[in-house]
Amino acid sequence: MKVLVVTPEITYIPAGMGNISTHLSAKAGGMADVSATLVKALFDLGADVHVAIPHYRQMYKTDYTNMEDTNQKMLREVIQGGEKDHVKRVHLASSRLFNTSNRVYGCTTDECLQRSLAFQREVINTIIPEVNPDLIHCNDWMTGLIPSFARILGIRSLFTVHNIHTVETTLERIEDYEIDTKPFWNNLYFTHLPSGYDESRRYNRVDLLASGIFGAHFINTVSPTFLKEIVDGYHDFIPYHVREEIKNKYYHNCAEGILNAPDPDYNPSNDIALDATYTAENHMEKKRQNKLAFQRALGLREDPNAPLFYWPSRLDPIQKGPQLLTEIMYSIIHDYWEKDLQIAVVADGPFQPYFYDIIRMHGFDDRVAVHPFSEQLSHLGYAASDFVLMPSKFEPCGLPQMIGPIYGSLPVVHDTGGIHDTVQDLNVTAGTGNGFMFKFYDAPGLRWAIDQAMAFYSMPEAVRQKQISRIMQEAKQQFTHNVTAEAYIKLYEKMMDRPLIP
């Protein structure tokens, strides 16, 4: 089975897939990590996997951007390794729109649409005919035309919904980018019921996310619970037509939820960003050392015994819930003043100024710290903290609630989406669970969960050490790329076993 993974972003590509692979990294969010880990796991397992990505020349670490015919030269590099000799596996989609950009997506919706169409033009017109795959795995709205095109070729397609975000355009605009839609236009999703190609071409808009879902043979979300929430009518921000298309796939047994997994770099035993590396066996002492280093870096009171709550997600009040924390921040700091409770935020986002205002108003400078996102500080924050705050209103998957337990930092979370699939309430007596969940999305709910976390923190050190060691060991086994990749491979096999319906 030959698989073509089509993705607008990827963190890395396995070195064995060609000499250029070590230069390629274009990341805007979690999709890049998921794509990278899936491709690596598939390749390591011996799968015949290919990748199609935009040629973001400014972002790729290359020294050949001004060389004549560079793209063709680099694409014809071969790899060494038994059956895989002389196979080109990395396929770069070239366009002038990608040449000078230092970011995956544009600054405006129209810029994003332009890049999407340029990318899909190269995939449809050049890469798919060259690779001739048995299965195409597409990711999010920027690849939404490809499943419909794959149908007319008799190629199975999987469409992964990472986020509920879409863009609309017209057939006329798509064809301006040299994509001939006439052979597959009736496999696309239009905002109004089309009566014919000519009637629809100029005025009837195509929804790219809904088209990807509608045109694909199978779809998946990035957690089982988020899929069920969509089908059951949760989350009013999801467009009705997108929900209905997902429901159609679900009730025809053509939809699954597959959890993402954190990047392997999140490993406290060898993480170079830490002040002291550690394992489940020696975490107590080393986490204190990391806590002091983190407190020093952020200007917090240096106290290795202070309970430290860490906020690792962007400060987005629509999804991530920072307003729940600011609403109760004063009371938390005040009520646990003697215990020196501390809150650390390493994140960007529109809600950041509210945190600064509270810190300044109440003189919390040494107990609450806010720092713009930094990859190194983010890693150190997991190692230094005792708890990870993640009160998301909704969460298609989420990664911080998985990364925290790997580092021995227990999640304090709202029970939703992918969080529900990865966090269970801690039961010290039974020796089960890994965090603290609140059911109702409001500030009192978050306060209740923080109180539960503090009750655990007040237990004898030997009790906490035993539970955290267990949680770290379980997280290391559960939240891995191999588990995710195996789930995708099973889904690929299921798709190949099903009769192909044009």
Describe the structure using short key phrases.
alpha/beta, 7-stranded parallel β-sheet, 502 residues, 19 helices
Word description of this protein:
- Helix 1 crosses helix 19, helix 12 (322-335) crosses helix 17 (443-457) and helix 15 packs across helix 18.
- The longest helix has 23 residues, at 109-131.
- This protein has helices at 30-44, 70-75, 96-99, 109-131, 146-153, 171-176, 197-203, 208-215, 224-231, 240-251, 283-298, 322-335, 352-362, 375-384, 400-406, 417-422, 443-457, 461-478, 481-497, and strands at residues 2-6, 48-54, 90-93, 135-139, 156-161, 168-170, 205-207, 218-221, 255-257, 308-311, 342-346, 368-371, 387-390, 410-414, 436-438.
- The strands form three sheets. Strands 3-2-1-4-5-8-9 form a seven-stranded parallel β-sheet, with helices on both faces. A six-stranded parallel β-sheet has the order 12-11-10-13-14-15, sandwiched between helices. It has a two-stranded antiparallel ribbon with strand order 6-7.
- It is elongated and about 70 Å long.
- It is built from 19 helices and 15 strands.
- It has 502 residues and is α/β, with parallel strands linked by helices.
Layout of strands and helices, then pairs:
Layout lengths: L1 E5 L23 H15 L3 E7 L15 H6 L14 E4 L2 H4 L9 H23 L3 E5 L6 H8 L2 E6 L6 E3 H6 L20 H7 L1 E3 H8 L2 E4 L2 H8 L8 H12 L3 E3 L25 H16 L9 E4 L10 H14 L6 E5 L5 H11 L5 E4 L3 H10 L2 E4 L9 H7 L3 E5 L2 H6 L13 E3 L4 H15 L3 H18 L2 H17 L5
Parallel strand pairs: 1-2, 1-4, 2-3, 4-5, 5-8, 8-9, 10-11, 10-13, 11-12, 13-14, 14-15
Antiparallel strand pairs: 6-7
Helix pairs in contact: 1-19, 5-8, 8-10, 11-14, 12-17, 15-18
